[in-house]
Amino acid sequence: CIQKYGEGKWHLVPARAGLNRCRKSCRLRWLNYLRPHIKRGDFAPDEVDLILRLHKLLGNRWSLIAGRLPGRTANDVKNYWNTHFHKKLSVIAPHLHP
């Protein structure tokens, strides 16, 4: 459906694809999960290192960080951070992460 109508016409997707979703849900699902060039699987050590360095520089600006990681979405980067580092950093430096 996206290939036929393009990425900008999200209001057409649910009805034409027979989905019981709103257009926002269709858009987010496409952007975060279904796009062809999204990288799946574990983060490579160099990606993890880059996330750590960029987070120190940019903070929680996930879209800017993801822009430096080809194939990774801001949602992937944020989820990786919250799963692997957020709690660890809270224990190590509680004054930095309330």
> For the residues shown, what is the average pLDDT?
85
Q: Which strand-content bin applies to the residues?
A: under 5%
Elements, N to C (H/E): HHHHHHH
| Main sheet record | none
Can you tell me the number of structural domains? 2
End-to-end Cα distance, whole Å, is 44 Å
Question: Superfamily at the CATH H level of the largest domain?
Answer: Homeodomain-like
Count the beta strands.
Answer: 0
Question: Ranges with pLDDT <50 over ≥5 residues?
Answer: none
The geometry reads as: elongated
Structural class, from secondary structure content?
mainly alpha
CA gyration radius, whole angstroms = 17 Å
CATH topology type of the largest domain: Arc Repressor Mutant, subunit A
Output the CATH class name of the largest domain.
Mainly Alpha
Give a quick rundown of the structure.
The protein has helices at 2-5, 13-17, 23-34, 45-58, 62-66, 74-84, 86-92. By secondary structure, it is mainly α. It has 2 domains: 1-34, no CATH class; 45-92, Arc Repressor Mutant, subunit A (Orthogonal Bundle).
Protein model, in words:
The protein has 98 residues and is mainly alpha-helical. The protein has two domains: 1-34, no CATH class; 45-92, Arc Repressor Mutant, subunit A (Orthogonal Bundle), CATH 1.10.10.60. Helix content is 59%, strand content 0%. The protein is built from seven helices and no strands. The longest helix is centred in the middle third of the chain and has 14 residues, at 45-58. The protein starts with a helix and ends in a 6-residue tail after the last helix. The mean pLDDT is 85.
